[in-house]
Design a protein that fits this description.
Mean pLDDT: 84
Number of helices: 1
Number of domains: 1
Number of strands: 3
Largest sheet: 3 strands, parallel
Strand content: 15-25%
Order of helices and strands: EHEE
Shape: globular
Distance between the termini: 32 Å
Helix content: 10-25%
Radius of gyration: 13 Å
Amino acid sequence: MSSGPLAGVRVVELGSIGPGPHAAMMLADLGADVVRVRRPGGLQMPAENVDLLHRGKRVVDLDLKADRQAL
């Protein structure tokens, strides 16, 4: 469990570039539980273990456009 002023707050990050990942990183630094949603086959960013913008976040790959029958 995280500690900090935002402990217990959950954040879903849907942005892939720009200020979204940076803002989510700052929220994670303050103790929020941040889940980064990636699009399979989308924009390839540096690996989570290399890029500091992804620190303190959990990651899920989710295709919101996939046909339910295909899942």
